[in-house]
Amino acid sequence: MSSTRILRRVNAPRSRVYRALLDARAVQAWMVPDGMTSHVHAFDAREGGTFRISLTYDAPTDTGKTTAQTDTHHGRFVKLVPDEQVIEVVEFETENPAMRGEMTITFTLTDADGGTELLAVHDGVPSGVPPSDNELGWQMSLAKLAALVEAG
Known about the structure:
Residues 11-150 form the Activator of Hsp90 ATPase homologue 1/2-like C-terminal domain. By secondary structure, the protein is α+β, with helices and mostly antiparallel strands. Helices cover 24% and strands 43% of the residues. Helix 1 crosses helix 2.
């Protein structure tokens, strides 16, 4: 298991970034790497609330963790501190033992010169996910988050 840690400056207030972390439509738009399409099946944004999301590769030659082209994961919101922190526990829906296990995703927001410093930490990444691939996917997704909230 590995971890990914990304620090990103966002030119938007913490409250706007926090809302985008907990809004199903926003999550569907930003929490998806390039070359994939997202579908939010369920999303109950409260402590203890659950969610289920599928990411499907656009190219028919890419291989998913759940089905031939899809990565589906489910999870729950463990801790929500308004405008400061979101902690989620997620797990891929797969039979592949190298992709199984609970992962923890923590988003921490702090003020940074009129904007927000976003620290995203993804702990417990399964051994079947190359750390460089996980980091690249998160970099792409967080760039989309930044663009979304900076546009207002």
